[in-house]
Amino acid sequence: MLSIRGLRAGYGGRMIVDGVDLDVAAGEVVTVIGQNGAGKSTLLKGIANLLRNREGAVTLDGENVFALSAQDLLGRGLAFIPQGRSVFPGLTVAENLRMGGFLLRDPVLLRQRIEAQLEAFPALAKLLGQLAANLSGGQQRQLELARTMVMQPKVIMLDEPSIGLAPQVVEQVFATLRTLAAGGRAVLMVEQNVRRALQASDRGIVLELGRARLQDKAAALLGDERVARLYMGKR
Amino acid sequence: MAFLEQALNGLMMGSIYALFAVGMVLVFGVMRVLNFAHGVIFMAGGYMCHAVMTHVVAFYPLALLLSAAGGAVIGAVLERLVFRRLRESLPMQIVASLGLILMVQNGVLLLFGPEAVQISVPAMRTVVPLGPLGVTLQQVLIVVVVGVAMAGLHLFLTRSRLGTAMRAASQDLQAARVVGINPDRVFALTFALASGLAALGGALLGPLFLVFPAMGDLPLLKGLTAIVLGGMGSVGGAVLGGLAIGVLEAESTLLAPTDYRDLVVFAVLILVLLVRPYGLFGRRLRGEP
């Protein structure tokens, strides 16, 4: 579904991501792990064309989409949820959902898509008039996912989806990502909560100094002593 | 009676300040651009209205619409050619807008000469009774047009797809990008809208006062005062701030000579900055005293 070849990306003149190759298939959850500064977030921003300084190849469903803008990428089915809270705090839940379908010009289709997301995330249905700023962290994450799903993307990229969430909510978020993958989407995420993320993933990629040092099945990475020592705090 | 009369005068001038301040707040809120050249767009509105009335058709409502549209076009062009490149640098924005003021004012001097011009709309001088008071049709028109413009702006920002996108972009630009909002288009639209409102203000004020190259300077200062009073970033605050300043300066003429009214307004500005620097309706930022 999503194929990256030789991606280099960075800020100013400095390349943080230095020639990464990776593939994510439909129905698959892939987690990128690595230490702070390894280039995980830069990798996702580079794929989503949110950085000026980037080179390489990005293919979506066999089509070269490297040069497409972030808006056009979303239109083709590649969605990105950035790190931290990315809801619009001063907009209501309903307005946030409508903004999720900003590219949809058909109001009937937009309403149908939003209704579908309210069925998938029923807790949001009772909060439509609330400002997003007043939601709990877990509710905001649900809103981000629901807002993203309004466009029915084929690939969803998430930067640290568990950050700042209570453990119970983290479980819900990862369960939701598994459900989305089971529905045929490809999920690529960056996570610091390595153990839990790999448990919810099919494959993992270890990023070191901007390069993919290791790619393997998630279960294999969970059992890898070096990975456990470096990224899961095991002594 | 005099108090009421000055309150009405203040409401009229306050409407113009509000129109001006709202445009600046929109541009700053969405783009983080402080455009001091907003005053020359206000002035351009006055000249465009005069040009339409003199050379095209002497129909004031049409001249108002064309002036606002012309201001919007000027704003979109300025955003594309000047401010888009300077989004990240506040000092450069200030230098660029001061340069624009000099360029536009001197350009107008070159085109129209140093003599002030007057937009003549005899029908708007008609005095209509309002209870015990008498107001001109132009004064009524200003309050009504600004009221309609503000209501329209409110509906646009809260009900329309593009208006909601503008609010979204003002809150989180990266999140706006990832939901498919094109920031460049939103910025151009914001600048066009704000400039259209400024030009409308100049065209509305033209028949009451003279139109001259520096006619936007005082509204710029009063508009900035309205923004500080209302709270930077608050559209509603800018409207209330503008109206409050208009009424305050008009009422001050009952207590002190007319020449002192600007002094009263700017004394209030200093007082607000000292006592409540985030404005009467703004929110305190993290780390702000």
Notes on the protein architecture:
Chain A is of the alpha/beta class. Chain A has a domain at about 1-85 and about 155-230: Rossmann fold, CATH 3.40.50. Chain A is built from 10 helices and 10 strands. In chain A, the strands form 2 sheets. Chain A has a 6-stranded mixed β-sheet with strand order 6-7-8-3-9-10, with helices on both faces. In chain A, helix 3 packs parallel to helix 6. Chain A is globular. In chain A, about 45% of the residues are buried. The model of chain A has no long low-confidence stretch (mean pLDDT about 90). With about 290 residues, chain B is mainly α. Chain B has a single domain, classed as ABC transporter involved in vitamin B12 uptake, BtuC (Orthogonal Bundle). Chain B has a two-stranded antiparallel ribbon. In chain B, strand 1 and strand 2 (about 135) form a beta hairpin. Chain B is globular. Mean pLDDT of chain B is about 90; it is low at about 285-289. Classes of the chains: A alpha/beta (about 240), B mainly alpha (about 290). The interface between A and B is medium-sized, with 25 and 16 residues.
